[in-house]
Amino acid sequence: xxxxxxxxxxxxxxxxxxxxxxxxxxxxxxxxxxxxxxxxxxxxxxxxxxxxxxxxxxxxxxxxxxxxxxxxxxxxxxxxxxxxxxxxxxxxxxxxxxxxxxxxxxxxxxxxxxxxxxxxxxxxxxxxxxxxxxxxxxxxxxxxxxxxxxxxxxxxxxxxxxxxxxxxxxxxxxxxxxxxxxxxxxxxxxxxxxxxxxxxxxxxxxxxxxxxxxxxxxxxxxxxxxxxxxxxxxxxxxxxxxxxxxxxxxxxxxxxxxxxxxxxxxxxxxxxxxxxxxxxxxxxxxxxxxxxxxxxxxxxxxxxxxxxxxxxxxxxxxxxxxxxxxxxxxxxxxxxxxxxxxxxxxxxxxxxxxxxxxxxxxxxxxxxxxxxxxxxxxxxxxxxxxxxxxxxxxxxxxxxxxxxxxxxxxxxxxxxxxxxxxxxxxxxxxxxxxxxxxxxxxxxxxxxxxxxxxxxxxxxxxxxxxxxxxxxxxxxxxxxxxxxxxxx
Length: 488
What we know:
The protein has 13 helices and 21 strands. The chain has 4 domains: 3-100; 108-211, Immunoglobulins (Immunoglobulin-like, Sandwich); 216-278, no CATH class; 284-484, von Willebrand factor, type A domain (Rossmann fold, 3-Layer(aba) Sandwich), CATH 3.40.50. Helix 1 runs antiparallel to helix 2, helix 2 (30-48) packs parallel to helix 4 and helix 9 runs parallel beside helix 10 (393-409). The strands form 6 sheets. It has a 6-stranded mixed β-sheet, with helices on both faces. Strands 1-10-9-5-6 form a 5-stranded antiparallel β-sheet. The two termini are 66 Å apart. The protein is α/β, with parallel strands linked by helices. It is elongated and about 105 Å long.
């Protein structure tokens, strides 16, 4: 029972007892006493009646009636007003009960969920309502959300006209992968009087899985189309030379390379024709994810591992659209999931299911084991995106020899994260000596991150230092840049 019901019941019981006491000492008309007791008994039945709830408007109106009778003890002229208010309140209460429980109200409600949610994105949930009653209704909707959202006060309000159907929606942003279970859909009906609410529950248990961000995957997949590759944040990279994967012969356009002119086709068509080349295909692109304890750090409600999972799905999708082969490798203290570099429509689904099941492990990542796995599992030169996190220069130094050995056989891109909280803290102005000390330490951490990037670049290892929320975008830019330079 809710706290509001308990308080209301105690107040009503106290009022009922007070009516007997006052009736013993203060002479009141028998009709007034009977009406008061009948009304109080009716109210107590309403409190315990199934699916009936008393809103704030009921208690406000009832308190006004009680105050009227209290004043009537001191001012006899108020007695008639109080008695009239009591009678009107009782009549309205009875009318509201009949209105909401007359059997003609047949409300239908349905929750419509997508097949899956995208991790870290706003996902839409739709609610459909319809009724055939001849009068309008007001609805208070409480949807029992999955426990992962930890929302205990999720409430929506809407209204339905006579014989109206309506669809409303709300959005949810899941921050963890896994299964999300929805429970009942509760509707509280209220008439235009609003003295009583009728609860109608729809038992609609539903489960929706939260996969790596499919929304981001589709969004960044558009970048593979050259005509719209000028999306905000996508860098245009000048091609240095070109690959020799022939695509087609087309008419010469001003600005084309004269070395691509096809003289035989030109002589046949009597107009300049050029050979058009495309990026080399069937190159291996591997996403390698460190699942160690350093990737458990949360930013914006999501762990670094989840940001890496989303970025890996985006890169794999773009690589497959570019006719490259996408693969996956995860590791921590032991080797996790391994997906061979392949192409094909069904391969993306394999990657999605694999990423969906990956979880972090509270151990230090074993880079020696990772190096051994690359020797055994990745035998052909590949572009390798390594998602990890270095919080200090010394942590990078410990694994640098292994990274150098891997870069001899593969094009290695080390992707790690800016600590945005430290970065923002370092940029705030200092107000006293203590603040100067803390901001100096913060700036030292920021400088170490930049030093890691510089040293990796000097050793021929590509490096991306990214804010967690910009990880997918920065990784896509690096992939397109390396493809444009034919560096893979």
